[in-house]
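At this stage, I put together one protein's amino acid sequence and its C-alpha cells, which the following lines show:
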Amino acid sequence: MDFRTLLLIFLALCPALSAQTVKEIVLTIDASTKVAWTDANYIGATIDWWPKEKCNYNQCPWGSASIINLDLTHPYLENAIRAFKGLRLRLGGSLQDQVIYGVGNLKSPCSSFTQQKDGLFGFSKGCLPMQRWDELNNLFKKTGALVTFGLNALYGRQPTDRHAWVGNWDSSNALDFIKYTVAKGYQINSWEFGNELSGSGIGASVDAAQYGKDVIQLHNLLNQVYQNTPVRPLLLAPGGFYDPGWFGKLLQVSGRGTVNVLTHHIYNLGPGSDSKLVDKILNPEYLSRTEGTFSSLTQTILRNGPWASAWVGESGGAFNSGGPDVSNAFVDSFWYLDQLGMAAKHHTKVYCRQTLIGGNYGLLDTDTFVPNPDYYSALLWNRLMGKVVLRVVNSAAPHLRTYAHCTKDRAGVTLLLINLSTQIQYKVNIHSTAETSLQVGEKKVHNKKSFARSIKESVSWVGTKSSDVTLSREEYHLTPEGGNIKSRTMLLNGKLLRLTETGDIPSLSPVLANLNSPISIEPLSIKFIVFPNFNSPSCR
C-alpha cells in the first residue's frame, strides 16, 4: 500500500486531527429537459465461467462462484437477486467462447474446464450440461431475474498466428441449445454474441466484417426459433472493448435492425494489482476520462446504426478479478455509483456489474454470499433513481460528483451526491431552471418560485392543504464503518447494513429532513436525496 493511500485512510479515520473545511456551493437542476433515459431495469450483474483455478497476483478469489459450480440454492443468493425485482443477470465472460452446450450431437464428452497451458486464457474448452441449465433457469424464475446469455462466437473458427480467428461461425451447437431453451419455456431476455473479440481482442479477435455476417446468421436463427413465441429476445453484440472503427463496421455490415444493442466493457481503473487504485477512485479528473468513451460510442451509433442502443455489458473497475480490499470495500462505491451516473447521462440503457459473485469485485462475498458495500449502493440506485436523467450544473466543486434522475415509480426528483474530498464538507443550495426553483437554506433566488412553494402547490393540487402536512425530503447517507474507506461494511444513516437473522436484505430506510433545512454532505461519503412531489415537467 503506497503512502498516499495510507494518508487518505488516516485522514478518514482521524477527522479531529485534520481541519475540516466547509464549502457552500450551488447546484442547478435542469428539470425542464430530459438529458437521457435508461431502461426500467438499468442495474445488472454478471455471473462468469471462471473455475476455482482462476488466479491472479498470487491469489485465487473465484472459489465456487461460476455458472457451473455456484450454489444456486443458497438462500442469501436468492434473496439478493429478488430484492431488485428484476435484476439483469448476464451469463458470460472470458471463457464464454470456449463453451460447448451439452445438447444435440456432440462430438466430444460434456466435460468441465481444466487448466491447459496452450488453451485460451490457460484453460481447455468446457461444457454446459442441460441439467445445470435447468437448475439455473429455476433460479431465474424464482427470483424474477432478466437473463442475458453470452453465446460462443468462436465455434467453428480457427486461430492464426496473430491470435486472430478466421472462418465462418458454426451455429449448429448454439441452434440446438436455443431450441432446447425455447422448448423448455425458459425466458431469455437477450442473447449476446461473443466476448471481447472486438478490435484487437482480449486473447482472440474476429474481423468486424466477418462478425457482422455472423450476427446476421444469429439474427435469422432467432427469428426462426422464436417465430411462434409472443416475444423475441434482443440480440446483443459484440460484448467487447470499444473500438470506434470496429463497432461502426459491425453496424454497417449487419444492417438495420439486426443488432438491437451494442454492448461494451469498461475497466478504467486498470489492473487489480495497482497500488494506486484508491488514488484513481478519489481523483475526479481520472474518473471523468471515461466520458470520452461513452460520448464516442453514442456518436458511432448515431452515424452507423441509430436503431441500436448502448449497454455496458461488463464493468468491474479493475480487471483481473478486481483489487482485493478495494473492489469489495466501501471506497469502490465512489467509482461504481459515479460510473452508473455517468453512463446513464450518456444514453446507456443497462449497466452490468462484474460480478454478482466471484472475484474481488463481486457484489456478494464469494465464500459467504454476504453483500459487499457495492451491493447496497446498487440496490439504492435501483430503488430511487428512475429512468429519466436530468442535467445538474455543478461548476464549483469537482470533488462533489452530482447526478439527478426523476424518482423511480413515484413523483419527485432524486439527487445523488458523491463527495470524493478527504477534508471538505459541502453545504448545498439547490436551484432549478424549470418553472419552479429549488431553495434550501437561507439563500434565495429572485424571480423564481421557491422549492417549498412548488411542493405546497403540488400537495394542494391533489386535494390536501399544504399546511396539514410536514414538507420533508428523504436522505440516504452512506458511510464506511469506523470511517475507514477500505471497510467491507457500510452504514446507512449511521446504522450498519447487515443481513437479518433469516438472511433477508435489511430495510433501507431514509431519515426525513425538513425541506428547508440545509443540505450537507461529509467528506468521503455518499448521499441519495429524494425530493417528493417535485414539480418537474420532465418527470410527469
About this structure: The first strand starts at residue 21 and ends at 30. Confidence is low (pLDDT under 50) at residues 436-450, 456-469.
